[in-house]
Amino acid sequence: MNVPLILGFDTSVAHCAAALRHGDNILLSRTEDMTRGQAERLMPLLEDMLTAEGLGWCDLDALGVGTGPGNFTGIRISVSAARGLALALGIPAVGISAFELLAAEAEPAEHQLVSLPAPRGSVYVQLFTGGRASEPPRQIEPHKPPADLLLPSGCQVIGAQATQIANAFAGAALPATVATITTLPETLTRVAQDSLAAPGTLPQPPAPLYVRSADAAPPRDAPPVILP
Description:
The chain is globular and about 55 Å long. It has helices spanning 38-52, 72-89, 98-105, 162-168, 184-197; strands at 5-10, 15-22, 25-33, 62-66, 93-96, 111-117, 123-129, 132-133, 138-140, 156-159, 176-177. Helix 1 crosses helix 2. It is of the alpha/beta class and 228 residues long.
């Protein structure tokens, strides 16, 4: 079986991050911090990386892209780029959430509650079982989780305000790990590779992950149709 060449990238937060992976080898990885300008920088960055390795777009076997949650516009920049490239090149694009990335970087555990920073001191959380998301993500207050958030015994809390969340579940064995995604583009390509190697159908086209509604009011016009 041929080892796939995967290009992964993310603009869901204040950066342009990308990596090229060939099997177990990271050929190149770059992260450029920026609060604006990702739309203008992303494609030249990807082009430069391919050129630096003597590669072209047609050499790619798959794409991985970060889907958030994060900056509303930033997520759409990278997801739309991935969908367009996948359609033009005839290769799969794998959408990967920040929850999946943090779970992949943490120590393995049967049950994980992954926590990401959210506005006004709250957090976004998602429960993982056996390395896979087992419930939809939701927004909670870390000091007072909702009563219907039931965690399995021994669940590990990972990420933003992990200690506060674990302490809120009195009497349960909940080791807390305060962690951040330290190797985002490299981990993104690894998760994409694992997803493509798993048995089953090809992944669905990536879509932005928004846990909560946008602060701005939606337009009155009907939204554009997204092609499958």
